[in-house]
């Protein structure tokens, strides 16, 4: 697991006010040779009602003695957030009474020492919101006045001041609840009690009535003795002249499977931008704060309330919003781990990727629930009740984005309380968490101390997001809308923006606080085009020192040299294979200028995308190379022909007798067993050399893929084993199943998925007379991809460049030890950064990325068959030009006889794959029963254009409907809705259905 790096301790650590909850990471070794004290003694004097004090253990007058060692501290406070007395220092070495509720600490014992040899971690959290200090009120947090005068705060182990601190009712209550939690855990392990421990159980467990406070004081003494925590001061952002923040750009590539992000700072004294200083976006695991993730992370989302301790007790201190993490969803590896804690009966708690469901704007019928393993009972709480959910309605739409014409009493105007969030809106939920983590990270001490101008605050200037190359026009606009909503919601959650309403029109607008900059959202570059920028920058700026003509002349295809119209341009093709889509772009580059002082002008010649990619390959690998060995093992365990029946029972489609727990285990098997196994097989296959003569590798035992603490996988394995035993299998153990690694067989499985698609794209590359074809996306590492393209003879093999083995150089932020890209997923984000900086901010690379304007690829529209083919007889509209605002659909009706899928293709060829866009169906079962006898209905569509309202996407809508006799039917009797995947109920990673045919 990626542990957070240890803070390099400065004498005084500066924090940025209003930068969210900031965490710092410390570590130590607990052994006799380390010099760390591991034993403390406390006693109570008879009749003394005050808190315990530290004394010599040999004091014979002690009436009640508490002996606390490090083991007891970990036992009591391990993994728990506790208040930390970081009090303001006064002259003479004394401490002021406060601030009391702005710092917390978490002690964790590591399962094994980290790279520094530390076996314990200390995570300290600071709530950086400043509060006004009033004489009549408790001093709960640093104030603006503290920042102005440079007040210093430090951990208080002074006996007098610490005694005062622990006498605070809320601190004493917190200590008591920490003991209660400890006893509850012990009782739970003994299976004696499922609920919280009683006062009687606590009294039975403790040596005296004040041992809880004694243990807490020992924790504070430990932290003080370690001398790891620096003094703290808040940076003055209020005294004129105020410091100018450093601008930061966030570049984000959100994929269906994984997401990659990076940050670029612009220093105030820099001319241009040093691209080598770009850093990866880091995600802090909020439920295991020792972990930080910086590599491309899963796009999974899971509802979970982040907590930094006992919020109910903290409230009694007088500070209601202390350490309130405002968002409602976790993402990435944390979301995946949390998904493994589900029981099944709590309801829906998350999904594999909200980006897959941009089209689905319908509210759920049942609400989303928090994923909370500690909740007892059948249903977890609804995913509401945090700052974020007060800003959105039940459908997940931001309240300030509700159209002005919606009445004030309409439920769209009210904050969510049922959590019926539409799947499309969950993308804004995920982006809000990413944006918030980014804001916290870029102002964190750990980040700033590694940069110049460490004491200057950072502000987010721009958010640059890539988009799939062939994303339909309607979904492209939804993506922008969700990104803008996420940005607004972050600043509203942080109190750095407010909503103002026009009393006359009812329109609501966002107003940012003084000194706050609302970042611009830029969604202009597709992933394949951005990838081209990486290749061109490496070659032109790095290898050729800016001389683009020299590179183009050396790399041009021989048949293009001297050809009319081709001698002065360079044609570059990119095949980007992601998790959910595969995209091809062919771009022509012209050069203006002389020598190395030139500008590149790109013109996009062709682009196309297909919804067939890495996840489909993984699905086929699971069916062919994971499930088949499992079925074989079941057969050998005595099930015979019943093995296939059991596999379909466990991993097939829904059945009438299937309960929610069975559905959960099926989904958990897909995510936590089958997918990791498939990825391991693919990883072995990626390193296979077709010419080596090697055809096999050592088999992979399923149990070796999962650790004993992998709760989800172990639960699924136990469930499958029990079902096998119940059906008559003798001695079957899923963990003991070995997956054969037959490279030729895996190669055939991959080819069965991608062969036709790659051959179609190779034909385009050949006809476009591309000079070079570059391959990007993680699945491009698979040998079959390169082999099929080479076999197609679209280009000579040496002109096909897989980016994973391309030596990119030391400038690349995600490079490996050999200065190669290694993971091609990262190229889209880095390329988008180059597109941004290439507009005048990079040396030797002037790139007119503003010429890259994506256009709709819909030319032929009609009814798709089950193979996503648009046959000639099913074409309803041809020659579409949706980029033209004045273009209207022909007034030509088509027949509707029942539910149908509508989509488009780019070429006038039956064999060219189509792209799903809409589903057309009856508005309700009752309407279907009434209208079916009057079919075929004649349906006419029109463009839905609302130029006066940019919130309405360009889309098709029903213009009129007539029955078979020509009688008019209300347009609301049928429903035309966006739907770009073929299963409305969900993707296979969300349903777990692996055997549906």
UniProtKB/TrEMBL annotation:
Region (Disordered) residue spans: 185-206
| Pfam families with a match to the protein in the record | SrfB (PF07520)
Q: Which domain of life is it from?
A: Bacteria
Query: What is the name listed in the Swiss-Prot or TrEMBL entry for this protein?
Result: Virulence factor SrfB
């Amino acid at each position: 697991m990626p542990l957070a790096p240890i803070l390099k301790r400065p004498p005084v650590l500066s924090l940025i006010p209003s930068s969210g909850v900031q965490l710092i990471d410390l570590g130590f070794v607990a052994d006799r040779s380390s010099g760390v004290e591991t034993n403390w003694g406390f006693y109570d004097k008879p009749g003394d009602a005050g808190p315990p004090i530290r004394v010599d253990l040999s004091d014979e007058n002690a009436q009640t003695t508490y002996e606390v060692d490090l083991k007891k501290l970990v036992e009591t406070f391990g993994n728990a957030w506790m208040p930390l007395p970081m009090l303001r220092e006064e002259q003479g070495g004394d401490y002021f009474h406060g601030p009391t509720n702005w710092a917390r600490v978490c002690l964790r014992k590591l399962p094994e020492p980290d790279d520094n040899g530390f076996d314990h971690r200390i995570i300290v959290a600071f709530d950086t919101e400043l509060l006004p200090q009033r004489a009549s009120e408790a001093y709960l947090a640093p104030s603006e006045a503290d920042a102005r005068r440079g007040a210093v705060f430090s951990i208080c182990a002074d006996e007098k001041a610490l005694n005062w601190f622990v006498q605070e009712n809320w601190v004493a209550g917190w200590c008591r609840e920490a003991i209660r939690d400890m006893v509850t855990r012990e009782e739970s392990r003994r299976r004696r009690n499922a609920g919280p421990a009683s006062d009687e159980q606590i009294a039975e467990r403790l040596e005296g009535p004040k041992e809880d406070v004694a243990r807490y004081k020992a924790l504070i003494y430990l932290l003080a003795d370690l001398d790891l925590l620096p003094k703290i001061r808040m940076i003055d952002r209020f005294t004129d002249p105020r410091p100018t923040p450093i601008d930061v750009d966030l570049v984000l590539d959100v994929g269906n499977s994984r997401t990659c992000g990076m940050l670029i700072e612009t220093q105030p004294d820099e001319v241009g931008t040093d691209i080598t200083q770009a850093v990866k976006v880091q995600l802090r695991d909020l439920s295991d704060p020792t972990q930080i993730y910086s590599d491309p992370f899963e796009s999974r989302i899971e509802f979970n309330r982040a907590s930094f301790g006992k919020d109910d007790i903290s409230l009694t201190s007088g500070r209601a919003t202390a350490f309130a993490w405002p968002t409602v969803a976790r993402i990435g590896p944390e979301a995946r781990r949390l998904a493994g804690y589900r029981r099944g009966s709590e309801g829906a708690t998350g999904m594999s990727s909200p980006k897959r469901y941009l089209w689905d704007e319908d509210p759920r019928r049942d609400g989303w629930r928090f994923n909370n393993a500690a909740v007892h009972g059948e249903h977890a709480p609804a995913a509401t009740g945090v700052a974020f959910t007060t800003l959105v309605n039940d459908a997940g739409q931001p309240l300030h984005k509700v159209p002005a014409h919606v009445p004030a009493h309409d439920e769209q105007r009210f904050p969510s309380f049922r959590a019926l969030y539409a799947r499309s809106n969950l993308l804004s939920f995920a982006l809000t968490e990413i944006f918030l983590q980014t804001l916290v990270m870029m102002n964190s001490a750990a980040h700033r101390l590694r940069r110049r101008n460490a004491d200057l605050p950072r502000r987010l200037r721009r958010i640059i997001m890539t988009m799939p190359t062939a994303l339909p026009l309607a979904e492209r606009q939804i993506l922008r809308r969700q990104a803008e909503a996420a940005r607004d919601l972050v600043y509203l959650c942080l109190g750095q923006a407010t909503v103002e309403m026009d009393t006359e029109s009812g329109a609501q607008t966002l107003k940012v606080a003084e000194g706050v900059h609302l970042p611009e959202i830029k969604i202009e570059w597709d992933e394949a085009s951005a990838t081209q920028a990486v290749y061109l920058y490496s070659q032109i700026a790095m290898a050729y020192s800016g001389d683009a003509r020299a590179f183009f002349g050396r790399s041009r295809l021989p048949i293009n040299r001297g050809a009319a119209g081709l001698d002065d341009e360079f044609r570059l093709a990119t095949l980007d294979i992601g998790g959910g889509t595969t995209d091809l772009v062919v771009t022509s580059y012209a050069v203006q200028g002389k020598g190395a002082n030139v500008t590149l002008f790109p013109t996009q010649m062709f682009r196309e995308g297909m919804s067939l990619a890495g996840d489909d390959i993984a699905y086929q690998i699971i069916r062919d190379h994971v499930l088949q060995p499992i079925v074989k093992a079941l057969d050998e365990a005595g099930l015979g022909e019943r093995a296939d029946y059991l596999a379909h029972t466990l991993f097939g489609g829904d059945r009438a007798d299937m309960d929610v727990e069975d559905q959960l285990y099926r989904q958990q098997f897909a995510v936590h067993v089958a997918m990791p196994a498939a990825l391991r097989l693919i990883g072995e296959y990626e390193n296979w050399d077709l010419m080596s003569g090697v055809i096999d590798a050592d088999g992979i035992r399923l149990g070796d893929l999962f650790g004993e603490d992998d709760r989800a996988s172990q639960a699924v394995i136990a469930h499958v084993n029990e079902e096998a035993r119940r059906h008559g299998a003798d001695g079957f153990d899923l963990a003991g199943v070995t997956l054969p690694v037959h490279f030729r067989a895996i190669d055939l499985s991959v080819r069965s998925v991608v062969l036709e698609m790659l051959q179609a794209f190779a034909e385009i590359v050949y006809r476009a007379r591309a000079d070079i074809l570059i391959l990007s996306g993680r699945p491009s590492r698979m040998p079959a991809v390169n082999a099929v393209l080479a076999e197609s003879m679209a280009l000579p093999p040496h002109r096909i460049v897989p980016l994973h083995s391309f030596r990119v150089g030391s400038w690349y932020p995600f490079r490996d030890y050999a200065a190669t890209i290694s993971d091609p997923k990262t190229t889209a984000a880095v390329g988008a950064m180059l597109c941004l900086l290439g507009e005048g901010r990079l040396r030797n690379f002037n790139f007119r990325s503003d010429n890259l304007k994506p256009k709709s690829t819909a030319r032929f529209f009609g009814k798709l068959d089950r193979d996503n083919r648009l046959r000639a007889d099913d074409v309803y509209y041809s020659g579409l030009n949706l980029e033209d605002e004045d273009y209207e659909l022909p007034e030509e009706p088509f027949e509707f006889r029942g539910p149908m899928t509508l989509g488009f293709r780019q070429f006038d060829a039956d064999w060219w794959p189509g792209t799903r866009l809409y589903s057309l169906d009856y508005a309700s079962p009752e309407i279907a029963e009434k209208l079916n006898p009057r079919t075929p209905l004649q349906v006419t569509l029109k463009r839905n254009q609302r130029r006066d309202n940019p919130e309405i996407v360009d889309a098709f809508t029903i213009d009129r409907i007539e029955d078979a006799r020509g009688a008019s039917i209300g347009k609301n009797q049928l429903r035309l809705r966006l739907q770009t995947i073929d299963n409305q109920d969900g993707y296979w990673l969300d349903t777990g259905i692996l055997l549906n045919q």
